[in-house]
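hey
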C-alpha cells in the first residue's frame, strides 16, 4: 500500500506589505496596473490623476487609500499634494504626461516647453517635493521610452527628452540618496493612451508587433507594472534605466 505525499510550499509574504505607494497618473494604463500590482503585494496606494470621475472609479476598483485630482504639470498643485499627502511615503511612481509628436520646426515655443515640462521638469518638481516625504531607501520611479532613441522625422523633441532623461535620473539618484531614483523605458505598450494616439490603426499595429517582436506578443501595462514593483522592492537598484519593449529596439 502506498501513500501520496503532498509537498507544501511556504506562503510568500507580500513584498510591499504595510508600505504606501503613490502613483501620479494612476487612474488608467501603466499607472493603474502598477497600483493594482502594488495592492496585490500588500501596499496602500494613493492615486492622482486629472480626470476626477476616472480617478474615482479607479480608486473604487483598487480600494485606494486616498486620491487627489490635479494636473501634475501644475507646480502649485503638485506642491499642495505633497504638503498634504499621508506620510511616510515609501514609493512614488510618475506616469503622468504623454508624447508630443510634431516636427521640431513646426513646434512653437510653448509646445516645445510643454514637451520638455511633461517629462524632465515634472521629474525635477516631483523630486523636489518628494525629497522630504519619501523614506530613506524608498523609491522615485519615472517613465521614458525606447522609441525615441533613434531620431526620426516627425518625432520632434521626443528624441532630445529621451536622451536626456537617463542623465537626469542618475543625477537625482546622487542628490537624493539614500532615496532611490530609477527610470523605466517602455516601447509600445497597449494602453488607452496608445489607442487614442493610433485610432483605427491600433489593430494593425498590434498585429505587426505580434509578428515582428522577438517575444511574439504585445507588451501590456501589467508587464511594466511587474517591473515597477520589482524596482520598488529591490533595494540595490538606483540611478538606472530599465528597458521593457519586448525587443522592439532590436528591429531597427
Amino acid at each position: 500500500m502506498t501513500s501520496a505525499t503532498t509537498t507544501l510550499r511556504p506562503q510568500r509574504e507580500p513584498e510591499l506589505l504595510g508600505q504606501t505607494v503613490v502613483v501620479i497618473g494612476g487612474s488608467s494604463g501603466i499607472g493603474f496596473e502598477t497600483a493594482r500590482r502594488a495592492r496585490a503585494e500588500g501596499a496602500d496606494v494613493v492615486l492622482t490623476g486629472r480626470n476626477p470621475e476616472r480617478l474615482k472609479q479607479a480608486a473604487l476598483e483598487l480600494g485606494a487609500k486616498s486620491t487627489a485630482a490635479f494636473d501634475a504639470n501644475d507646480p502649485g498643485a503638485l506642491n499642495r499634494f505633497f504638503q498634504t499627502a499621508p506620510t511616510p511615503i515609501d514609493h512614488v511612481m510618475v506616469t503622468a504626461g504623454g508624447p508630443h509628436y510634431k516636427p521640431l520646426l513646426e513646434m512653437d515655443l510653448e509646445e516645445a516647453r510643454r514637451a520638455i515640462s511633461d517629462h524632465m521638469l515634472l521629474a525635477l518638481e516631483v523630486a523636489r517635493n518628494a525629497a522630504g516625504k519619501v523614506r530613506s531607501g524608498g523609491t522615485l520611479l519615472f517613465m521614458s521610452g525606447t522609441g525615441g532613441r533613434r531620431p526620426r522625422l516627425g518625432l520632434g523633441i521626443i528624441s532630445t527628452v529621451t536622451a536626456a532623461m537617463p542623465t537626469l535620473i542618475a543625477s537625482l539618484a546622487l542628490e537624493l540618496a539614500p532615496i532611490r531614483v530609477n527610470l523605466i523605458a517602455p516601447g509600445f505598450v497597449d494602453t488607452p493612451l496608445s489607442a487614442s494616439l493610433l485610432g483605427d490603426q491600433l489593430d494593425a499595429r498590434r498585429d505587426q508587433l505580434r509578428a515582428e517582436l522577438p517575444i511574439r506578443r504585445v507588451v501590456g501595462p501589467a508587464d511594466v507594472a511587474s517591473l515597477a514593483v520589482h524596482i520598488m522592492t529591490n533595494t540595490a537598484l538606483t540611478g538606472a534605466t530599465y528597458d521593457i519593449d519586448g525587443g522592439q529596439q532590436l528591429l531597427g
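The beta strands are 20-24, 44-49, 66-69, 89-94, 134-143, 180-186, 241-244. The domain at 20-191+220-242 is CATH 3.40.50.720 (Rossmann fold).
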